[in-house]
Design goal:
The protein is mostly beta strands. Helices cover about 0% and strands about 50% of the residues. The protein has strands at about 1-5, 10, 15-25, 30-40, 45-50, 55-60, 65-70, 75-80, 90-100, 115, 120-124. About 30% of the residues are buried.
Amino acid sequence: VQLQVSGGGLVQAGGSLRLSCVASGRTGGGYTMGWFRQAPGKEREFVAVISWSSSFIYYADSVKGRFTISRDNDKRTVYLQMNSLKPEDTAVYYCAATYETKQIHTSAGWYDYWGQGTQVTVSS
C-alpha cells in the first residue's frame, strides 16, 4: 500500500487548505485512515481519524470544529479540510492507514502505512 499526500502550502492565519491522500497498490478494503502532524522539535501527534465506512470520526481537541476529515472509497482518497487555520497548526502533515479496525486508534504506532508528508505553514 502506498499513500500519496498533496495539498499543503503557505496560508495566512484564518485561511483554509484541503489535504488529500490517495492510496494505491493492493489496498483491498476495510482500512481506517488517520491524519497526523509533526511540528519542528515536537513529536508526531494525532489530528483526525475516519473508519472505512465513515461511521466513526474522531478529532484531536486542538482541531475540533475547524478541521473535517472525509473519505471517498471509490477514489481511495481521504481528505482533511482545514479551516480557521492558526500559526500553531504549522507542521508536516501525514496520512496513515491501518487494517487494525477492531477499535479506532489515535496512536501512530498502530498505523502500518504512511504517506510522505506535506508541509503546512500558517503565517500570523
